[in-house]
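Thread: Newbie trying to understand structure tokens

Hi all, I'm a second-year student working on a class project, and my supervisor (Dr. K.) asked me to get a predicted structure for one chain before our next meeting. I've only ever worked with sequences, so writing a 3D structure as a token string is new to me. If someone could post the tokens and maybe explain what I'm looking at, I'd be very grateful. Here's the chain:
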Amino acid sequence: MNKLLGKLAGMLLALTLSTGLAAAQSKITIAVGGGACLCYLPTVLAKQLGEYDKAGLAVELVDLKGGSDALKAVLGGSADVVSGYFDHCVNLAAKKQELQAFVVYDRYPGLVLVVSPKHTGEINSIKDLAGKKVGVSAPGSSTDFFLKYLLKKNGLDPTGTAVIGVGLGATAVAAMEQGQIDAAVMLDPAVTVLQGSYKDLKILSDTRTQHDTLAVFGGEYPGGALYSTAAWVNGHEKEVQALTNAIMATLAWIHSHSAEDIMAKMPDELVGKDKAQYLAALKNTIPMYSETGKMDPKGAEAVLAVFSEGSPDVAKAGIDVTKTYTNKFVDQVKKTKVGGQAVLGRQL
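---
Reply by user tm_fold:
Sure, no problem. This is what the structure looks like when written as tokens:
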């Protein structure tokens, strides 16, 4: 009898401990606007490094075709957080939908307008895209916003160009190689993959570096960030802080390791078969990743200015762009020194 009671007590203790462990890990679903894109690498790498687990989160990454699809997942309630481009927060503010970014991982957008190798001879400038078919990750995504901005900036009516959703990875490359579209707004590694096969690849606009970003937008322009509805952020501050801690730790890891080290941590299906091209694309992209995680207020204003120029709805909406982001969670991440290396302290 004593042995039976002892066994039952042991089972009860084990159940209590396992239940406590499960309760300690908050479940969060992050919708990613195209996991193969290097612009979203910090979100994926954080999971590969175990940073979400260390922060007390059980994170599920849901890979979707584009940023607009990721946004729909959050607005529809099937995901908690978007890993996507900050400009959606500004665009939706014009429709009275409150979204808030809380950690920025891309200093620059990394968007590139590329001519299909099949149509190099007939397209020499953005103005030549009038009446053409141009690929974007998904209609309504940041790639689509960028295209419309460039068309309007060059005196074209954005509605005069057909927008085709082609994704961001292998499907986009295939559409370009086969000439199904005349041009596309792409990101790395897809751009570098095409450049590896077509040395004369024609690029009409490039925002992968600070110099190019300033040339296109007239200022720095934040790209990828974690964001959600303002209501969710305000109601889940503990989880938001944990996500911020995980991304900040990942950014610190990125900037203290080589491109080879980073590639070795990424899932094989995202790296692909041509590791040399992926590595080359990664080396091009690393300067794009933020070192602070903070939103530059001037960058947020630049996004608003771009959208105000391209969208009458945004221009007349009277948007207070400071409500579309917060730096308070990044500010709360404490830096400590461990073994001479900066490590970002966790607060959960």
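A couple of things are worth pointing out once you decode it. The CA atoms of residues 45 and 266 lie 6 Å apart. The chain has a mean pLDDT of 88. Feel free to ask follow-ups in this thread.
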